[in-house]
Specification:
Layout: E1 12-15, E2 18-21, E3 26-29, E4 32-33, H1 38-49, E5 54-56, H2 57-64, H3 72-85, E6 95-98, E7 102-105, E8 110-112, E9 119-122, E10 127-129, H4 137-150, E11 171-178, H5 188-198, H6 208-217, H7 228-237, E12 242-251, E13 254-263, E14 269-277, H8 283-298, H9 302-307, H10 312-315, H11 320-336, H12 342-351, H13 356-368, H14 372-384, H15 391-406, H16 409-422, H17 428-439, H18 444-457, H19 462-474, H20 478-490, H21 496-508, H22 512-522, H23 529-542, H24 546-562, H25 566-582, H26 586-599, H27 603-615, H28 619-632, H29 637-654, H30 658-664, H31 677-682, H32 688-699, H33 703-715, H34 717-720, H35 725-739, H36 743-756, H37 765-776
Parallel strand pairs: 11-12
Antiparallel strand pairs: 1-2, 1-8, 2-3, 3-4, 5-7, 6-7, 9-10, 12-13, 13-14
Helix pairs in contact: 1-3, 3-16, 5-8, 5-11, 11-12, 12-13, 13-14, 13-15, 14-15, 15-16, 16-17, 17-18, 17-19, 18-19, 19-20, 19-21, 20-21, 21-22, 21-23, 22-23, 23-24, 23-25, 24-25, 25-26, 25-27, 26-27, 27-28, 27-29, 28-29, 29-30, 29-32, 30-32, 32-33, 32-35, 33-35, 35-36, 36-37
């Protein structure tokens, strides 16, 4: 039975190097106090008292928040903070996540005899200290200082002059004036200074997206120089307080760097810093030094400056040329789409193979282009180098790594939520949470909340509009999805996903003219043309026009291959394999599956091919691919909770074991409305657990239960969209009603399928079968 946090007894506990005193609410590690928030302490106490037992999330939330309704994210954030306090990094030694259930405290716990402890309690707002007669002040004083610092109490010991900026102010970072004649400094020093200043949880820089949009509003090009009067006007228009300007000049063989902050309304100089570099190789070190001085003088506390101040040459690169290529790549991505930045970032890592953030951003760009294998390679390298970056950048790398490499969305969410807590002024973690992290768990309402917060922080972050619009779409709130996309277009913001969304909405409304309009407008647009041709192929296949669907898919494949996007091409090939298998064309399905595998061996391609091979009857090859997924991706959320359960269930059905097939899908139930990886990137593959479960119930003659599963597919049009499984669900639902002895509903379901397939290819076996079955009911 779970002990309530309020039941403070005289028990004391020991595990590993830690000692826990419930009465005095203290946690010591090797006799040194560890600062915990009250809720984190209470969570630890519940877990410790039930060590080696699974404690459900519901039990934990009721124990720690007994009289208050809170979101599950509060629990997740406190668990993550607790893990950090216990010193856990990649290996969860103490607190183990039990997927779909809760958490287990895995360390052996021992009861201790009563003893006097010195520190009674530490919270974020107060610190209470008891001094035992047997202890000296020399031990107590450092402990008090540590706790005060953790609780935000450093102001008791340090005083500052009146701050120049406050924690509510935003600033514009202008271009560096370069009078050296050496172009390597152009853009490079501004990028380096941005990295240095963004380490601060206190400072908030106006984003590049917002600066570029503001420049366009001013009648200038998005990449116009940001200096002088232009920078000042951008500052005013964005509601920022100050412009930070930099300069570099040659002094013989040495370099002089300057940094100044001006009030953008009055022009008053708020602060100025200067530094000197003896040689070119020392410029980045000098830049970092003056950035640190600047942060302390504008109002940031010494505590955060010291804690979040990674030297620039470590946080980025010691190579000016690599940093310049990195800056050029980011600018190209902002102005011309993410894929445009890849060649420059590739150059950056060629110049400096240890440039962690260049690897990380290149991985992100590969993700956006649908090239997950290349993304895994880049993000794995960034992850290996993550000790070389700032804390904020490490959060970015860790989140991206778990999202794309391990596929462990719960771990990525924990990291991202701690990022948001540590840097409350940074909108990026909210934008990332609103995308595949929450959508991949089916938490669409949470996605909406995070996207809205991200847009509240910065209304010009295009991905947040896409995430917000798609979550509305997945929830079936199509008008709100359309309105969100329109908001982005009105702000002159564009990304291919918004065009795809417009096509989706037109498809579900049966607006053929708008579908064609969206497809035509996407032609020639990098990152959009092949995807929208793929959507057209899916739509044609769902209506039974298989010959036209295959031709359209080949256009998508050729376009992707021409652009060098092999994995995208493979996605389109296995998409055809899946619908051919579902519609009973086994030989064609196997051919397309192997064509996809010849282009890519990513986890999503292997899953789709394995599914198609299983449905078309080639179980030996399907099973071989399934074993690869089991071995290589043990922590991937989609693999664990969708891919493997579906493949194992199909195998059980092949063995004529429908009970086993249903049991294999039990683990998928909490996640079946989520976006799978293949669904998120390829727009097919969602709700397949419900479809296969429906097949298993039909095999057991459990018609009502089969109908309920198949109806899920028809009820969630925003999740299934144009996936051909939407057509097959109608036919299987009709068969379920026949089995249940309900001819009225059966006729209606058959009519729904036949209406959808009114323009289907004549002589298609599935169509002929459906017509025959319908005729028998007359």
């Amino acid at each position: 039975m779970s002990a309530s946090p309020g039941q403070i007894g005289r028990d004391r506990y020991e595990f590993g190097p830690f000692r826990l005193d419930p009465e005095k609410q203290t946690l010591l590690r090797d006799d040194k106090p560890i600062a915990l928030t009250p809720k984190a302490f209470q969570l630890l106490l519940v877990l410790v008292r039930r060590s080696n037992q699974v404690v459900t999330k519901d039990e934990l939330m009721k124990s720690v928040w007994p009289d208050t309704f809170v979101e599950e994210t509060n629990l997740t954030r406190n668990i993550f903070a607790l893990r950090r306090a216990l010193g856990e990094t990649e290996q969860d030694r103490y607190i183990i996540t039990v997927p779909g259930e809760g958490y287990r405290f895995a360390e052996n716990v021992h009861n201790l005899p009563e003893r006097q402890l010195d520190i009674v309690a530490a919270t974020q707002s107060t610190v209470q200290v008891r001094i035992a007669e047997t202890r000296s002040w020399r031990w107590i004083a450092p402990a008090v200082i540590v706790l005060l610092a953790a609780a935000g109490g450093t102001s008791w010991f340090f005083t500052h002059r009146k701050p120049i900026l406050t924690e509510r102010d935003t600033v514009v970072l202008a271009d560096f004036a370069n009078s050296t004649g050496d172009s390597v400094f152009d853009g490079t020093l501004r990028q380096g200074m941005a990295v240095q200043l963004e380490q601060s949880p206190f400072l908030s820089l106006i984003s590049e997206e917002r600066i570029r949009r503001t420049l366009v509003q001013m009648g200038q090009s998005a990449d116009a120089p940001l200096s002088g009067e232009t920078a000042r006007e951008v500052c005013e228009r964005t509601g920022a307080v100050a412009v930070i300007e930099g300069s570099i000049a040659a002094l013989g063989s040495e370099y002089v760097l300057g940094l100044g902050a001006k009030n953008c309304r009055t022009g008053d100089i708020l602060d100025e810093e200067q530094g000197q570099a003896a040689k070119k190789e020392d410029v980045l070190k000098t830049l970092g030094a003056i950035a640190t001085k600047f942060r302390t003088r504008i109002g940031e506390s010494l505590t955060t400056v010291e804690k979040y101040s990674r030297p620039l040459e470590e946080a980025t690169s010691s190579s000016l040329e690599a940093l310049k290529a990195y800056n050029t790549g980011l600018n190209a991505a902002f102005s011309s789409g993410l894929q445009a930045g890849i060649p420059f970032l590739r150059r950056a890592v060629e110049l400096d193979s240890q440039f962690a953030m260049a690897h990380a951003h290149m991985g992100l760009m590969y993700i956006s282009s649908g090239e997950s294998e290349l993304a895994v390679r880049s993000l794995s390298k960034a992850y290996q180098l993550r000790d070389r970056v700032s804390d904020r950048e490490r959060f970015f790398i860790d989140t991206s790594y778990h999202r794309a490499v391990t596929g462990n969305l719960e771990k990525a969410i924990e990291t991202c939520e701690l990022w948001a807590l540590t840097y409350p002024r940074d909108g990026r973690p909210h934008s990332l949470l609103s995308g595949f992290l929450y959508q991949g768990l089916g938490k669409y309402e949470a996605s909406l909340e995070e996207a809205q917060q991200a847009l509240g922080d910065d209304p010009d972050v295009t991905p947040s509009y896409a995430n917000l619009a798609f979550s509305y779409f997945y929830l079936g709130r199509f008008d709100e999805a359309q309105a969100t996309a329109q908001r982005a277009f009105e702000r002159k913001l564009y990304m291919p996903e918004l065009s795809l969304l417009q096509y989706h909405i037109a498809f579900l409304k049966g607006d053929r003219a708008r579908m064609e309009q969206e497809r035509s407008s996407a032609q020639g647009r990098a990152g959009a043309e092949d995807w929208i041709n793929h959507l057209e192929a899916l739509a044609l296949a769902q209506s039974g026009q298989l010959r036209a669907a295959r031709e359209m898919s080949q256009l998508a494949v050729e376009s992707a291959r021409h652009a060098g996007n092999r994995e995208r091409a493979a996605t389109f090939e296995v998409g055809v394999a899946v619908w051919e298998a579902l519609f009973g064309n086994g030989a064609a399905s196997r051919q397309y599956a192997m064509a996809g595998l010849a282009l890519s061996k990513s986890r999503d391609i292997e899953y789709a091919a394995s599914f198609a091979l299983a449905v078309s009857g080639d179980f030996p090859r399907s099973q071989a691919l399934m074993k690869v997924l089991e071995k290589q991706f043990p922590n991937d959320t989609s693999v664990r909770f969708s891919y493997l359960p579906v493949l194992r269930s199909l195998s059980a059905l092949h063995r004529n074991e429908p009970d086993a097939a249903i049991e294999q899908l039990r683990i998928a139930a909490p996640y079946e409305l989520a976006q799978t990886r293949i669904g998120f990137f390829g727009f097919f593959g969602n709700l397949y657990p419900a479809y296969v479960r429906g097949q298993a119930f039909l095999a057991e003659n459990r018609a009502a239960e089969a109908a309920a599963e198949l109806q899920k597919i028809l009820d969630h049009r925003g999740i299934v969209v144009s996936d051909p499984i939407g057509a097959l669900a109608r036919l299987q639902l009709a068969r379920a009603y026949v089995l249940s002895g309900d001819p009225v509903r059966a006729k209606s379901a058959y009519q729904g399928f036949l209406t959808l397939w009114k323009d289907a290819d004549p002589g298609t076996p599935l169509l002929m079968m459906a017509e025959t079955e319908y005729t028998r009911l007359q």
